[in-house]
Each structure stands twice: as C-alpha cells, then as structure tokens.
Design brief:
Elements: H1 3-27, E1 45-54, E2 57-61, E3 65-70, E4 75-80, E5 85-89, E6 106-109, E7 112-119, E8 125-134, E9 137-142, E10 161-162, H2 165-171, E11 180-184, E12 190-194, E13 206-210, H3 213-227, H4 231-234, E14 239-246, E15 262-272, E16 294-298
Parallel strand pairs: 2-12, 2-14, 3-11, 9-10, 13-14
Antiparallel strand pairs: 1-15, 1-16, 3-4, 4-5, 6-11, 7-8, 8-9
Length: 299
C-alpha cells in the first residue's frame, strides 16, 4: 500500500472525527450553576458570552416588583427592580387528587389579598396570607403543617400555590395588588423585564393596563410568530405592562407547545459587579433564562 493511498484512508477516517469534535466543543457549555442565575458573584468584571440565543417575547414592566412561579422546580421568585430576589418553595396543584386541578400557567396579576381566606369548597379550611391571582387560584399557607414535606418537591394542593406560613408572613406585606404573576412549567417563551416609561413610544408601542380578549389575542399571536420564526418580522412593537395590572380571566400564555427557535449569533454582555449586585438586574434580566447557553468568564 503506497503512502498516498494510506493518507487518503487516514483522511477519510479522521475527518468525521475532527468535525464531530468541533461541533461538540461549540455546544459544550459550563455548568448552569456557574452561568447566569439568581446568585451573587463578588468579582468585579465578568464577560458573558452567548453563542446560541433563544428568542423570547419580552414584556417591559414599569413597576418595581413581580412574581414568577416555576412549577417544574416547585419554586417561586419575588423579583424586585433593585435586583433583590426572594426565593421560596411552593407546592402547586395536583390534578390527580379528588377535585384537584393543575395550577394554571400564563401571565396573571395579583387581584386580591386577605390575611385569612375561608375555603368553602374544602371544609372551610383557613388559607393564611391569601394572595389571589386568577379567580379562585392564589398563594397561601395552611395552619396544619403536614404539607411542608411537599414544598419544593411535588404538587400537593387542589390548585392553589401553597407556601410555608413563614414565607407567607414575610412576602404578604411586600406583594401589592396589581403586580404581574408569571407562571410556567419549565422554560417560558416570554419573560418579564423591567422597563422605563421614557422608553415607551405612545404612537407605536403597546401599553397594557387592563386585560381584554383583543389584548390576549395580540400577545398570544406574538408567541405563535415567535415559534414560526416570524417574530422579528411582525412583532417589532414593544409591549409595556403598567405599574398596576388588572388581568381578569387572563388567558395570556407563558409557554408554547412549539419548540423554542434558536438563532445562532454571537453576543458579549458585560456586567459591573463591583458592588456585589446579582446578575438578574437591568440588562441581565433579558438573559436570565439562558443558563444553559451562557458562559461567564473573567475579563
């Protein structure tokens, strides 16, 4: 066998391996625990490199705090404009219980509050630190502590979002009527980011204060366009959420059955963390859900 023939065989054998290694190295990312998350990093200068960025529908909120519930992880977040994030364990609705319902997903708003709410449907049970967000669905604690074993682990309620009495006592005074509540199972197709009124163009952008069928239709169509890769073509207007929302009977979806579209592009984002600010403030909120696509390295 001559050298030329041998080199050709080696090339045919090694070329696919080299290509595969290059592709895999491009897709390998750091541990999500070291990527953008709700943790504090004390070093001064970091560079965040995004290689593949999933497109999201961003809603710009003019208020100072909102709620997020991740049903997949059974965790809730009370997020403030200052960057402070209060994390609490929850237990959501279990449809397999008698008269049980799944906690609905979507975008809602806090509708009412009460230190104690009586559930006539379930033997006049006392629901402590009640925070209602969608009809009979709300956040609350219970006097009996048996459900504590399920908090942060699995759904165990008949539809509401249960939390510990201690978390309820801490959060109840802070949560105001009218703030947004974003609930999703795993990864939402739309996110809430803090916006400024000075960025709002009244002749072009959309400002939402009250919910209506027409508003819900517009927002849900944006997600359809997002997953059909038509988002940047049709949905160029920004959507702003007023400081106080009244989303009654909301059917604004937070996630879609379609696969999230990924647009290969490179972007560097720099953070000034000299004052030990969390990465969930300002511009970083745009990329909060990109924990599996972001690499943070010291600059």
């Amino acid at each position: 066998m001559n050298n030329r023939h041998l080199s050709r065989r080696l090339f045919k054998f090694l070329f696919p391996i080299v290509i595969a290694l290059q592709i895999s190295s491009a897709l390998i990312v750091d541990n999500p625990n070291h990527s953008i998350n709700r943790s504090y990093i004390k070093e001064d200068n970091f560079r965040c490199f995004f290689e593949y960025i999933p497109q999201k529908d961003s809603l710009f909120y003019l208020g100072d705090e909102f709620l997020e519930i991740n049903l997949g992880r059974q965790i809730g977040y009370f997020i403030q404009r200052s960057g402070y994030v209060d994390t609490f364990s929850i237990s959501s609705g279990n449809k397999y219980l008698p008269r049980g319902l799944e906690t609905p997903t979507g975008l809602f708003s806090v509708q009412n509050k009460a230190p104690v709410q009586i559930s006539r449907q379930f033997e006049n049970a006392e629901m402590l630190n009640w925070i209602g967000f969608h009809g009979n669905f709300g956040f609350h604690g219970l006097k009996k502590r048996g459900y504590y074993n399920h908090l942060g682990r699995r759904p165990s309620s008949h539809g509401c979002v249960r939390m510990s009495v201690e978390d309820g006592e801490r959060l109840y005074p802070k949560i105001k009527i009218g703030i947004p509540v974003l609930i999703y199972n795993n990864e939402p197709s739309r996110i809430i980011v803090f916006g400024k009124l000075s960025d709002f163009d009244p002749n072009f952008d959309i400002l939402i204060t009250n919910g209506s069928k027409s508003i819900y239709k517009i927002l849900n169509k944006r997600l359809k366009n997002l997953h059909k890769r038509k988002y940047l073509l049709y949905d160029i207007r920004k959507v702003f959420l007023d400081k106080k929302l009244n989303l009654v009977n909301s059917n604004i979806v937070s996630e879609s059955n379609y696969e999230i579209s990924f647009f290969p592009r490179k972007r560097f984002v720099y953070f000034d963390l000299s004052k030990e600010k969390p990465l969930t403030t300002n511009i970083a909120m745009f990329h909060y859900f990109l924990t599996d696509t972001c690499k943070i390295e010291k600059r």
